[in-house]
Amino acid sequence: MTTRTQNDVRNFNEAINKCRMPVFLVSSDGTRYNMKSADQNVDGMNRWIRDFSHQMEIFTCDLEDEMIMMRYLLNRAA
């Protein structure tokens, strides 16, 4: 089980804030959270923090935003 730390949450939000277009977290049941929306960001972060089975997926609407999120994921894996 992976525990999301305060640093993980901060780094994830920093990556999302660098993106120009919407970034979506999608749960295994198909629930979509627009992470650029303040209301949905809170709900999406709560779901992401509790996602111990790693079933959440990240989708972007822009190639540059995709690169930002890929860099975040690569830094997290390192």
Description:
A hairpin with a 5-residue loop joins strand 1 (23-26) and strand 2. The chain is 51% helix and 14% strand. The protein has a single domain, classed as 2-Layer Sandwich (Histidine-containing Protein, Chain: A), CATH 3.30.1340. It has 78 residues and is α+β, with helices and mostly antiparallel strands. Helix 1 (6-18) runs antiparallel to helix 3. The chain has helices at residues 6-18, 38-49, 63-77, and strands at residues 23-26, 32-34, 57-60. The protein contains 3 helices and 3 strands, in the order H-E-E-H-E-H.
Number of domains: 1
Tell the overall outline.
Answer: globular
Tell me the helix content. 40-55%
CATH topology grouping: Histidine-containing Protein, Chain: A
Radius of gyration, in angstroms, nearest whole number: 12 Å
N-C termini distance: 18 Å
Number of strands: 3
Low-confidence stretches: none
Largest sheet strand order: 2-1-3
Count of helical stretches: 3
Instruction: Write down the overall mean pLDDT.
Output: 89
CATH class, named Alpha Beta
Major sheet size, sense and barrel closure: 3 strands, antiparallel
Class computed from helices, strands and strand pairing: alpha+beta
Order of helices and strands: HEEHEH
Q: Beta fraction of the residues? A: 5-15%
The CATH architecture would be 2-Layer Sandwich
